[in-house]
Write a structure and sequence with these properties.
Layout lengths: L1 E2 L8 E2 L7 E7 L5 E9 L2 E9 L5 E6 L7 E8 L2 E8 L6 E8 H13 L2
Antiparallel strand pairs: 1-2, 3-4, 4-5, 5-6, 7-8, 8-9
């Protein structure tokens, strides 16, 4: 993953050690980076949410109900919920899904992940 500041002439690259598909990023009001992305595991691809710490290490927060052809999540914080839209074919025909995760649950997920570091 690359990071740069305007005017984007010099980049710093971090090896994530992960294969990410169609990632989308959001920063929480507390300053935590959440990445919505296609994840890959032994049972195939899923859409999931990851967090990244200051050193560039990624941690899986949650895997959303998904599978098969799935990706390109949109992420937005609205009315104290993290909204995640994505498409998936885990129920047969490819459909569009909208997950609504209360921010208090997101905070718990972030705390659990980062307290283990």
């Amino acid at each position: 993953m690359g990071r740069s500041k305007f005017p984007y002439q010099e980049w710093e690259w971090v090896n994530t050690g992960l294969k990410l598909g169609g990632p989308n990023f959001i920063i929480t009001p507390a300053g935590k980076l959440i990445i919505g992305t296609r994840t890959f595991s032994g049972d195939g691809s899923h859409t999931g949410l990851l967090s990244m710490d200051a050193e560039g290490h990624f941690r899986l927060l949650i895997e959303l109900p998904s599978g098969g052809d799935t990706s390109y999540p949109g992420v937005l914080i609205f009315k104290n919920k993290l909204l995640v839209s994505y498409y998936s074919s885990h129920e047969g025909k490819t459909s569009i899904y909208l997950s609504q995760i209360p921010m208090k649950e997101v905070k718990k997920l972030l705390w659990n992940v980062h307290s283990q570091e």
